[in-house]
Amino acid sequence: MQEFRVDRPLVLDGGLATELEAMGHELADALWSARLLADAPEEIVAAHAAFYRAGADIATTASYQASYEGFAERGLDRAGAERLLRRSVELARLAGEVEPGENRWVAASIGPYGATLADGSEYRGDYGLTKHELREFHMPRLETLADAAPDILALETIPDVEEAEVLVEAVAGLGVPAWLSFTVDGDRTRAGQPLADAFAMAGSDAIHAIGINCSNPEDVLPALETARAATEKPLVAYPNSGEGWDAEQHAWTGDPRLSPRQARQWRAAGAMLVGGCCRVRPEDITAVAEALLDPES
């Protein structure tokens, strides 16, 4: 584990599950990419390495949709589930050895409670759970992933301010820095709260960067402007491709709209961690990396 620092713009990876699907894996599964932690770990290494090779500085682990409860449904006991959560960090580290470079950071992905339901709930929020129930769900995997020594925790695709509050409180005593990124719809969180309320979470010492992910590319710039009004901390921007997810059909619709021009705009607005999320491939990350290196082009 290195001391995570943001002293220049850093390039995030893209859609890990998207790349695994492109490699031929069927991920229509409640565990999503986390299923391959047990079934095909070498393929996860290969996908991480592809993004490093494309220009990414940070690999985000295959733990977004992983949970003790989800692994238990597959017959794994507590020790087995813990082993796979730790493996997600180990595999990202291994990819940095496969594709060595100046910076090879590992971000341990912590998705929202709704992600583990595999029904699109992370795009709605407001699950009807109390803060205590949310903390009871998140804390065990947070502790396990933090103990696996990633460089940073990625609290990502968070749709709801209340869940963000729980997560920020939970990571405060773990000794690992974290970034917090919301999924938004226009000028509000997916749960309907003003973004100013969401970005107020940046006040916590545990949060080293804050921003937006898995949202339409067009929503990023105004969200970053709202975030910049709340904090001077580094901002995070990694939207999806712009295609829409149909939860009923389990299919993506529309055309990709992510562009290098947008990445340059986000950098100018204060984003220091920039990349992509769902449907963003290594070639897209190469274009983002080149745009950040040459912001005037």
Automatic annotation (TrEMBL):
Report the Gene3D superfamilies cross-referenced here.
Answer: Homocysteine-binding-like domain (3.20.20.330)
EC number of this enzyme: 2.1.1.10
- SUPFAM superfamilies in alphabetical order: Homocysteine S-methyltransferase
Which positions are annotated as binding Zn(2+)? C214, C277, C278
Tell whether Signal is among the UniProt keywords: no
Domain Hcy-binding: residue ranges: 1-292
Q: Does the keyword Cell inner membrane apply?
A: no
Pfam families per UniProt: S-methyl_trans
Which cofactor(s) are needed, names only?
Answer: Zn(2+)
As one GO molecular function, the record gives: S-adenosylmethionine-homocysteine S-methyltransferase activity
- Alphabetized PANTHER family for the sequence: HOMOCYSTEINE S-METHYLTRANSFERASE-LIKE ISOFORM 1, ZGC:172121
Instruction: Report the protein name in the record.
Output: Homocysteine S-methyltransferase
Q: Which organism is it from?
A: Saccharopolyspora aridisoli
